[in-house]
Design a protein that fits this description.
mainly alpha
């Protein structure tokens, strides 16, 4: 490479070996929350939505086989969603507060790792987390509210 190209290329982010970027962790937590919410609702919400959409068949009865595992799916999904909400909403405030405290103490802003601008989660990640939270809440409370809508089902 030429000398000019070396000066114009940005330096890669220095990360500890095995460390995962915060943006990637937020995305993984949101994806885990969505997949867990689908798994948690596979025995009750998914057949209900398919029935309302007009899809039916004997194969839908096989989805009830997952019902004994629903509490496990709900617990795992709750952990993913809680971790995702921590990364998206709580952690950026803590990093910003630590950065402000470090700057107030006279620490050089470039040398202070806590002063780094916190990762701003995308709207997709926030939406996925909220969707997963609503889905797991519906799946967890399904036995309570299903009896109210059962008379209106086709």
């Amino acid at each position: 490479m030429t000398e000019q190209m070396q000066h114009t290329m940005p330096e890669p982010k220095a990360m500890a070996p095995g460390a995962v970027d915060v943006d990637k962790r937020q995305g993984l937590a949101a994806a885990g929350g969505i997949l867990g919410a689908i798994a948690a609702s596979s025995c009750c919400i998914v057949p209900l939505l398919l029935t309302v959409a007009g899809v039916s068949g004997a194969w839908m009865a096989n989805l009830r086989a997952l019902a004994p595992y629903q509490p496990i799916f709900i617990a795992i999904t709750a952990l993913f969603v809680a971790y995702g909400f921590y990364l998206v909403y709580w952690r950026p405030r803590r990093v910003a507060a630590r950065g402000a405290a470090a700057l107030g103490a006279g620490v050089d802003g470039e040398a202070c790792a806590a002063c780094a601008r916190p990762a701003v989660p995308s709207a997709v990640v926030k939406s996925a987390l909220w969707l997963a939270a609503v889905m797991v809440l519906l799946a967890a409370t399904f036995p309570i509210w299903f009896f109210w809508i059962e008379p209106y089902l086709p």
